[in-house]
Each structure stands twice: as structure tokens, then as C-alpha cells.
Amino acid sequence: MSQADIGVVGLAVMGENLILNMESKGFTVACTNRTTSKVTDFVEGRAAGKNIIGAMSVEELVGSLKTPRKVMMMIKAGGAVDAFMDQVMPLLEPGDILIDGGNTHFPDTERRLKKAEDAGLLYVGTGVSGGEEGALKGPSIMPGGSKGAWEHVKPIFQGICARTDSGEPCCDWVGDGGAGHFVKMVHNGIEYGDMQMICETYQMMRSALGLSNQEMEEIFTEWNKGVLDSYLIEITRDILGYKDEDGNYTLDQILDTAGQKGTGKWTAVSALDLGQPLTLIGEAVFARCLSALKDERVAASKVLNGPGTSFDGDKAQLIEDLKQALYASKIVSYAQGYELMQAAADEYDWTLNYGGIALMWRGGCIIRSAFLSKIKDAFDTDAELTNLLLDPFFEKAVENAQASWRRVVSNFCSSWHSNAGDQCSFGLF
Q1: Which run of H or E residues covers position 70?
Q2: Is residue 184 among the annotated active site residues?
Q3: Which of 83, 85, 70, 81 is nearest to 103 (CA)?
């Protein structure tokens, strides 16, 4: 039996898709799962006829790997990772590499790295962004941990990751310790902020301007051709236009509540720990918490009344103002996210490549956008840049958007009416 280049533990959709991605790039992959029937289903189903080796035990998986052995865990963050490490570490030899590809809290990565290195192993904690489709077609990958592991995992990670339009890989070494998972955490926090700002923009268009889903779809289509060009604007456009089999807009049937997996909260807590004003992302996290209180909001709407919304001015001008306000707010969100990463680098003695991080986010991940190339340019020009808003490009962009930004706040904050289906936290603007 041929030996595998890497072993993957965990056959949920993300794990399966990463394996298929690796195999499609010329790598032989071994895989296993706690429920071994899933191994059989996978190798006889989606993996049939491919260079993928099914292992019915951890021992069999380890025995199928080339040295130094590379074992990538795609399992639920938390105790399951610790339990698997206890199971696999006695089977490995000095120089072998453990990789955690889950959404792990970075202090856990720091702790596990020390445990692995004390045993002579190398450890990588890596963010993998892009969801199920990204895992299959090319995710953004943010690895950190034992620097000696990079030369061994680099060919695989850069082989399977997304690429920019110019062909640059959306993966590079982030830094020591838990730096990879920290940067992925901040990515997710920025994602929370982006989504909340888009939600508020939609709310203003719908409730105050009275725009239809079709009108909003057309607006987001235009916005996606300019400075707001991004994956989230693109899918907002698509969601606004999506209809069910009866011809009804699906968006109108969706309950206005949102859950969270913890990474946004971790970002906000880290900001508090490091004394950083992460106000925009923090408000986005609180907005999700507020949205979950559906019954309380419905009850409150029957008791707490406010002024109704109305706007009788120039709609076209206000739509342009909303675009500029969204753009300026997005800049602020990224500026705060980068300040948080800089503070963490100082606190934990990491050396982070800030321009390289922007490049990693240019493709494959949820926050991918054309906007990120300007962030890379800013840090390439000045590696010691203390705040993104001080870069000439972003300074000018915010200055140009400021009048529109203020008009949005003055037009809406003075007359916003929040009812059972509406919520807004204009602190983002």
C-alpha cells in the first residue's frame, strides 16, 4: 500500500472536502473518523477511485503516513481535540506534526503546542476559512505554531489554498504560538462586523426608504462593481433576489434572529483583555445577542413606542450616502481589527506580517474583497503603520465619505422606530 502525504481525522463535510481538495492537487491522503462507518461510506462514495486511504483506527492511520508524519485534526474544537491528542501522541515520533484545523480558541492552541513540543513533536494551529465550498475549491489558510513545521506543511497548504487574481497563494506562515488561530478569530470578528453593517444598511433601505427586494438587489449589484466589491455584498445581492418555488422572496420568510459560534465573542473579549477599542465588532456581537431575544423584543414592541420612520428627501442621494457610510464603517472595522492584532503581537511576542494577512484574506475566505489589496499596499508601504486610518489611501477615503456618513446618521438616528422585526445599532456608524 502506498504511503500517504498527510492524514486527516474527522469526516464531517469540511474534513471530507479538504481531503478531496488535497487529493485533486496530487497528494495521497489517509483519513479516519471516530465512527468508522463514515470512513467506509466516504472511501466507497465520494472518495471512490481516488488516492485516498481509509483507516479504521488511529494506529492504522499513523502507520500509513510518510515521515515526518502529518496528522490534521478536523474535529470539533474543545475537549475532543485534547482527547485525540492523548490518543495519537504516543503513536508519533519526534519531528512528527500535529495540525489543528478547527476554530480553536488561541489560548488552547498555545497550551497544546507546549504539550506537543515537550514531547518532541511539532504543532500547527491553523485557521481555515471559506466554508464547505472553500474547503473543496480553495480556502484561505492561516497557519501558526512550531515554525519548524512550516517547510513540511507548506507544499500541501499552498497547493490547496485559494489564489488571488495574480496567482499568489492565500496562505502563508502567520507566526509563533497561537498566532494562526488568533488571526482566524479576528477574521471572524471582522466578518461579524461586515454582516451587521450590511444588515443595518438593508434595514434602512427597507424600513425607511421603502425599497423593494428587487430594488435593493439592483443596488447591491451596482455596489459590488465598485469599492464595496466583496463576497458578502455579492451573496447579499443573490439573497435579495432569491425566490422559492412559489415565487415568494425567501428573505421575507426568514426569522430575524442570529446565533453565533463563539469566535466573534472571543474577538471582543480579547480586545477587552488587551485594552483595545474594538467598538464596531463588539456592537455586532451584541446585536446578535439582542436578535436572539425575539420574544422579549416582540413583547417590548407592544409597550415601547417611538416615532415612525419616514424620508421625503432625495432617495438617490441617500442611497449613495448609505454606500459611502458602509464603506467608511468597513474601513473603521478593519482598522480596529488590525490594531487588535498589533496589540496581541506585542503582548504574546509574535511577529506578524500584516500585509501578508491581508493577502491571505484576498481569496477563499468569507471576508474576501477587492478592498483588502489596499490594506496589503498600506502595510507594504509602511510595515510600522500604527493605524490603517493613517495610511494616505484610507485617510482620503474616510475624508471623502465623511459627509455622507454624517447625513446617514442624522437622517436615521433621529427618527428610527424599532419594532418586533426591526433592530439597529447605529453605534456602528
Answers
A1: strand 70-73
A2: yes
A3: 81
